[in-house]
Amino acid sequence: MKRLISCVVALSAAAMILNATNVCAADISAESKGTWIWYPGDYEIWLGNEMNNRRTERGSFYPPYLWRIDSAYPIVEFRKSAKLTQPETIEICAEGLYNVVMDGQRLFGAPQKVDIPAGEHSLIIQVFNQKTPPTLFIKGNAFATDSSWLVCSSEKKRLPEKNHDFEYVSADCWNFDSIEQKPSDFKLNTEPKEAVSRKTAGDGELFDFGRETFGYLRFHGLKGKGSIRIGYGESLEEAQDWKEAETSDWITVDGDNVTNEITHQVAPNEKIFTMSGSKAFRYIYLAADKGVKYDKISMLYEYLPEEYKGSFRCNDEEVNKMWDVGAYTLHLTTRETFIDGIKRDRWAWSGDALQSYLMNYYLFFDKDTVKRTTWLLRTKDPVYCHINTILDYTFYWFLGIYDYYMYTGDDSFLKQIYPRMQTLMEFVLNRRNDNGMVEGQPGDWVFIDWTDFPMDKSGEISFEQILFCKSLETMVLCADLMGNKADHDRYSALASELRAKLIPTFWNEEKGAFINNVVNGKQSDAVTRYANMFAIFFNYISPEKQQLVKKNVLLNDQVMKISTPYMRFYELEAFCAMGEQETVLKEMKDYWGGMIKLGATSFWEKYNPEQTGRQHLEMYGRPYGKSLCHAWGASPIYLLGKYYLGVKPTKKGYEEYSVAPVLGGLEWMEGDVPTPHGKVHVYRDAKTIKVSSDEGIGTLYFKCAGTPKTNKGTLKSKDGEWTLTIEPGTKVVVTLE
Amino acid sequence: MKRLISCVVALSAAAMILNATNVCAADISAESKGTWIWYPGDYEIWLGNEMNNRRTERGSFYPPYLWRIDSAYPIVEFRKSAKLTQPETIEICAEGLYNVVMDGQRLFGAPQKVDIPAGEHSLIIQVFNQKTPPTLFIKGNAFATDSSWLVCSSEKKRLPEKNHDFEYVSADCWNFDSIEQKPSDFKLNTEPKEAVSRKTAGDGELFDFGRETFGYLRFHGLKGKGSIRIGYGESLEEAQDWKEAETSDWITVDGDNVTNEITHQVAPNEKIFTMSGSKAFRYIYLAADKGVKYDKISMLYEYLPEEYKGSFRCNDEEVNKMWDVGAYTLHLTTRETFIDGIKRDRWAWSGDALQSYLMNYYLFFDKDTVKRTTWLLRTKDPVYCHINTILDYTFYWFLGIYDYYMYTGDDSFLKQIYPRMQTLMEFVLNRRNDNGMVEGQPGDWVFIDWTDFPMDKSGEISFEQILFCKSLETMVLCADLMGNKADHDRYSALASELRAKLIPTFWNEEKGAFINNVVNGKQSDAVTRYANMFAIFFNYISPEKQQLVKKNVLLNDQVMKISTPYMRFYELEAFCAMGEQETVLKEMKDYWGGMIKLGATSFWEKYNPEQTGRQHLEMYGRPYGKSLCHAWGASPIYLLGKYYLGVKPTKKGYEEYSVAPVLGGLEWMEGDVPTPHGKVHVYRDAKTIKVSSDEGIGTLYFKCAGTPKTNKGTLKSKDGEWTLTIEPGTKVVVTLE
After folding, report:
1. Three-state DSSP class for A309?
2. Which range scores top for mean pLDDT: A160-164, A701-705, B213-217?
3. DSSP helix, strand, coil percent of chain A (3-state; round to 5)
4. Which element (helix H / strand E) includes B61?
5. Residue A164 and residue A633: Cα distance in Å, rounded?
């Protein structure tokens, strides 16, 4: 490797520095690599802020103002030590002002190229940037930037509970694998799309893009002078109601210039004028002044590129459609992070995100978006408020991390985030009442669900304690994975103590169910579904109590019904966990099938089969307040993958997994469930089960009254349930009698 | 006032919005005003970060990495309600994305002009910006932006101790009084300056700019191909020693392009090429490759414009020179904030800043720079480390605020900053030991002073407790000003309790002095000057003990001497407080006169009269490590103003003040001390005292054995001291017998 100049002595040998800074690009080895790295969470918070602040409401910027909004650390230190078997020349690029200290020696200036001799060496690079997160790229071999680099901010080490001066964590990265691909330049992909119909309506024109979509409206051949009012509609009604539509735009054309009245963006009137803000819509209504003309409109569809790794097909076309619409709904809401809905809200919410994560494991298996969302939601230390200000959302955040670990097996993320799990849990623990339970404090939002009738959210709410308990159990599991015995012991004790209180405190023998809450030590009279259904799939109650809950709560119409797909997700999961797939299939066909029958091309924020017409569009007291593309609506892809195809990891990252295919009323079904490096393929009908996989050891579970046969391995039976081990790379066919 | 359109109904009246956004500029009233406003501290922290990160060390960017580095809040809400007697049209401009809610109604887009009808109205504007602080300008009348606007960030209201949801504070502003003058565009002023001499030296050329200066080096007529090494020197020796000089640069000329090797800035080779980084220097040494030529160099002197409101002249030219050099030193170190030194360090340090503030009250009386520095140093809530990580510097921060209030009378700043005083004091209180005293904790730096011999900094240090006690007393005074009775009572009790412990804990009867520290309840053997001298001018010890301290400590050569102008400031103040101006004058002439005799054109970081030659340049183990322009070197301007001219406020903002002119060995002296809206002029010689002032009620104090006469008012005498009331706008002449 070429002209090797020791930069170690750069400070005292001026002539050599020239060599260090003047190495030509050809000197960089062809095999050299690297990726942009940053302080974990920094980029995610910055990018997430950009995303969260793109929301507009009826033409006006609408920020997530009530949330904690963090910034990137303005100064980050990056370091790495490595032993080089041969010398290497590295190329350095940073987003920000930087310095380089090699082997304890400060190099002159901000060198773009440095020659490193063979042997043991260390690099320390500090980057300062207030505009965008400080990031670093080193193109090289041993010193190429990747997650093996360590990073530290000026704040991390000064937390009171961390007294040692320098606490480093592993650097974070994504897929910015060339110097030119600067993280702060990130943009989602776009693709031109045409409207499928155009017609005159009222004083304007109505365009239909065929289904729910998202992106930038474009005008072709815009000319003349005057204004155009643009109504975006997820529904026909909304597009045509400019005054009340949730999103709308307004442009002024004047000869060669077009001005966007929201952003004040003035663009020369090119052949195609693209609006500066991306929007959700299916329909566009344009009302143009007489003096303004355009040839046509089109759009740039904006999306995060995703591979559809999961799949599902069965004999029931309505279910297939449900899966497709669910997948599209999840894709539309998978952006810089997972967001709730694409029209009105466009924010990252922890409760919504947890469901997106789970669906994602059965569709895209996109680890990066889970991580970005988790960092954004968590914000920074010290903690002073709940995630999204919501008590329950703090707990969901913990749960999401354990799910991530189980599905992906990625313990490097766990190591990065564990310190922030600890500090968030401390925040929670410091706010317990005398009984060791959590209650909403001033400034907290106790959300639970949107309900059609008022629900008492005071005192100790059973649902919140169950989430709290599961979060503590998650801390125990993560402490184990971190090898942190002290944390294990502490969180175990806290979890056991709380778990032991749940039934004595909240179970009501007379009602055969958990009551909603306890105020001043007294059980309230109300029973709600939330704690009861979570207790089932968390396995917090005995099979006997599960049956009581099923009868007294889940199948009891006197208990307030759930009308959001958000809680339907868990309600149906509870049924599935009890093996009630047939019930769930009927419910799915009623509920999601109901939306499809009403023409849904993506699933909604809320759906009440008893409503009609425009009622379906209303929410929050606004005629088009409801989002018609909401991530939490997409749960069929999760339920079908996990409880029908029946695939789930039983050891981290599918090292081991179970396959328990249940038709639940279908005649046949077939599909793929993604795993970290491949997939599990499952087919089942009344007589056959076929399973194949790319990795991990699977266990097939099925019930069969007769004596099934298999082409591979040995079937075992116990209590009418059969099991069979699935080795990777083999196609197993089981024939049922 | 023209076309008045009610924007209140903008959402439901599309046609009207056009009027709201299309009002022409001429509609804005000629009397309209406004200034850029922001969340207090946001802009100061952002600007201060930019400044603190301009430090380079031998060509390499050197950030204040160990400090807490904050950012501006990305989202800020601004609001104001006002009653308009007549309608007004406002013009809105923000640095960032913004929205406008008027009278609870969201206006469409981000309107640049809004018509507001007469009557009671409210405006809420939210601004989002991640690149620079969110700021707002409204040009108008009643709604013109100024400090009467209220602001709130997403974080403020969520602090655990502030449970109510919305806590607003007064907006902050400076002098950005037109829409075009965006705060984020702020630059210090510059002015071209020429070198006073140029000569060949070694292989290069040496330029002398005549005195210490600061700015951007410029090349005229640069051409050819090759490199130029640039050595900056506060001294001749440093400039010529490129390898060891604290700051240096390197440029590469190639035909039409010039590349700066530190910033990678490439500039077309214009007639004048200006270096991108500003530097401190008196001398410049250039070593150019043979192929590179230049006609000459010059510089752009960079400075904060300041009016020299204070002045001092006397019969002793050395003292006059001392005042002039001190004033220039303070001006060079008065920048975006007050900084310590201009060459190496260029950072804002709380201990240094406190002294700059005090000097500033006798020279520029620049309130804004005191405020900016105070905000930058404090950073944000929640608190998790000391200011600059230094225990003593946290205490100096409190003291600076009370000084600010006394000198300026500006209680609006006190109201803005009081919440951060409370939270910082809580942080201190939470870290007390069982004895209620402060000790250095892991991660803290217990600085006190640079000393020539080791000093024990463990356990309870007397000096730190004295600063702590004074800080608590400051909290009591500020709580009173805020009308906060609960705080008054709490801090009073804490201050009294600590004050009562000082003498029992630290006073040693045998030594007749405060000892340095107590470890495990046992007094150490060491006596240092710090606690002893502060106890004098804080008036914490009786006149008898003051005399003991003077004899046993201040005049005792066995007690470790002070060699920084930093602590000389307080040592001499202690002498002055005991009326020892003659002693101090001798000391000043020795110490500051000594630097002047060595050719100082600005005052140094450290000076030891016993050293010689290059020793004066060394510090931190580096040959040119010492800063030859350090703010804490400028204290003569404070001492001469406060203890010779003898002027100081006795009620806030010079509502009342005292004038106690003391010649201290001078034959005559004359000068001005600035007050908020004018100045106090003092002349004194052996036979005459002349005082005049623009505001406030002054009391002249002087000693006179005989019977003095006055042209105004009535002289009173008590115990040999005479007093006379000075009314504003009168020239008082007192003739001494």
Report:
1. coil
2. B213-217
3. 30, 30, 40
4. strand B60-61
5. 47
Q: What is the mean pLDDT of chain A?
A: 92
Q: Does A68 touch chain B (CB under 8 A)?
A: yes
The CA-based angle A670-A673-A675, given to 5 degrees, is: 155
What pLDDT score does A98 carry?
96
- Provide the chain A residues 514-543 that lie in CB contact (below 8 A) with chain B: none
Chain B hits for A18, Cβ within 8 Å: 227
Which tens digit of pLDDT belongs to each residue from A585-595? 999 999 999 99
Q: What is the pLDDT of residues A518-555, one digit of tens each?
A: 999 999 999 999 999 999 999 999 999 999 999 999 99
* Average pLDDT of the residues in A172-196: 97
* Window B:347-386, CB contacts with A under 8 Å: 382, 384-385
Q: What is the pLDDT of residues A302-350, one digit of tens each?
A: 999 999 999 999 999 999 999 999 999 999 999 999 999 999 889 999 9
Rounded CA separation A225/A656 (Å): 66
Is a pLDDT exceeding 50 seen at residue A239?
yes
User: What average pLDDT score do residues B6-30 get?
Assistant: 35
Q: Which pLDDT score is estimated for B269?
A: 63
Task: For residues B561 and B555, give the distance between their C-alpha atoms in angstroms, rounded to a whole number.
Answer: 10
Determine the Cα–Cα distance for residues A608 and B650; give it in Å rounded to an integer: 73
Q: What is the 3-state secondary structure (H, E, C) of B636-669?
A: HHHHHHHHHCCEEECCHHHCEEEECCCCCCCCEE
Residue A256, Cβ neighbours under 10 Å: how many? 10
Tell me if chain B has a CB within 8 Å of the CB of A240. Answer: no
Query: Tell me: the pLDDT tens digits for B165-190?
Result: 567 889 999 999 999 999 999 999 99
Cβ–Cβ contacts within 10 Å for residue B543, how many?
Answer: 10
The per-residue pLDDT of chain B, averaged, comes to 92
- Region B126-132 average pLDDT: 96
**Residue whose structure tokens are 């669900």:** A449
CB contact under 8 A, B49 and A73: no
Tokens linked to B268: 């077309």
Integer Cα distance of A130 and B132 in angstroms: 7
Nearest-CA distance from A412 to chain B in Å? 26
- Looking only at the bridges linking them, the beta strands covering A678-685 and A522-523 are unpaired
Task: Pull the structure tokens for residue B573.
Answer: 């103040």
Residue B705 binned pLDDT confidence (cut-offs 50, 70, 90): confident
- Residues in B closer than 8 angstroms to A102, CB to CB, are none
In angstroms, rounded to a whole number, what is the distance separating the alpha carbons of residues A24 and A26?
5
Q: What is the DSSP letter of B606?
A: -
Judged by CB atoms closer than 8 Å, whether chains meet at A109 and B262 is answered as yes
Residue contacts between A and B (CB atoms, under 8 Å): 186
For A497-566, the three-class secondary structure string (H helix, E strand, C coil) is: HHHHHHHHHHEECCCCEECCEEECCEECCCCCHHHHHHHHHCCCCCHHHHHHHHHHHHCCCCCCCCCCHH
Cis status of the peptide bond prior to B565, with omega within 30 of 0: no
Residues of A in contact with B100 (CB under 8 A): 60
